[in-house]
Amino acid sequence: MDRSAAGMTDVEARSLSHVLRDRLAGLNAAQVARCLVAVGALLLVLVTLDPFPDLRNPDVTAIVGGRMALTYIAWSLLAAVAMLCVAASDAPALKSLLTPLHLCLLGWLVINIVFSESRGVSIQRFVLAASVTSLAVLLPLLPPTQRSFNLCLGAAALVLLALCYLGVFLAPQYSIHTALDVTEPQLAGDWRGSFGHKNIASAVMTILVYVGIYLSAVGSFVMGPAIAALAGTFLIFTGGKTSSVLCLAIYALASLVYVTPGLRLKRIICFVPLVAMNLLTVGSVLSPALGAMTRLLPLDPTFTGRSAIWEFALAAVAEKPIIGHGYAAFWDDVSARQTAQGAEWATSAAHSHNSYLDLAVTIGLPGLMLVILVFVLAPLGNFQTAQAHSRSGALAKLFLTVWLFGLYYGATETFLLERQNPIWFMFALAVAGLHFLARFQCVEQIESKR
Prior knowledge:
By secondary structure, the chain is an all-alpha fold. The protein contains 18 helices and no strands.
């Protein structure tokens, strides 16, 4: 045996052990706990406590009391722990959230719940929504540095992708839509992974594509491309047309906004197509002229006959335009409501397939306006401020892209303020991230924070 080689191996082993010992000694228990809470929150919303639902089971839509109780407890506890983690070290960031606009929105939601048609349902669901949204808002503050935030984001993404792909290959009956599904058997063959529907899976995969691109941009040349490639491939197999079209279109739009200097021009780029999209969809059932225009388009702007649902929802808005029908309390029992002849099937819908219209139905037009001010208009101004101060350009662009995707995705699906919906969680996280970047410098290393 070559003694010199053996001695070299011993030296390398000792060096490695010293490196590992130094790394472990440098770890701060509080910082590790904050990262674990961040990863736990991401996995709780993306994987959930009930992944891979069996859509062939007739009882799949039934609400199980014990399971829902566990969901409420998990989210509430995690939100409380997150608040304890950041309360002392990030007090200025928390105080910055107490703006008049935010307080007005919260106050209106309380008023809306008091006058809800199903007050108990609204209160119960608002408690869960408050826990989920609080955790999403706190998540950018939990990891102690931007690098640790990137690692938390990447780790959660890889865990979710691994579960989704394992499900497809090892248990396809639980991760791919089948012809035996109780609802929507026509989706047979579309991948859904651990989610209950391919539309949710496709939207989440789109966001993970953006996460992979961001991680690649900040120097993660293995994890970043892997996440982007795996998520992009899964997105294709979900068959989610809306998310597939928006994926690259929104990234291109965000890139254009990123290089545009003025806020006014940024607003035009972001909001003019969004307004046009809503006019060509929901607006087409309000205006005969818009309806005639949409029929000339080479695509179906009603997205497979949703115009009947929009008409039904608009009629509900007309009934209670100010106070609304109550937060998350309208669509549970609408089968007895009157509809136009031939459109009776619209009463079986779970939501209005448009986030803005759905908010008008549930929390009224004033509530919708407050949501637009807080979640549609303010984030772009925050991005402009963050960009003007050169604060974490790549991270700001990630938040901008996820926010833009949510705005346009909301024109065809309902997710705004929707409890533990993963799209809402990531959207709220992006909005909060832009809020904080506009006011504070992102911490790069632990030493710079001391």
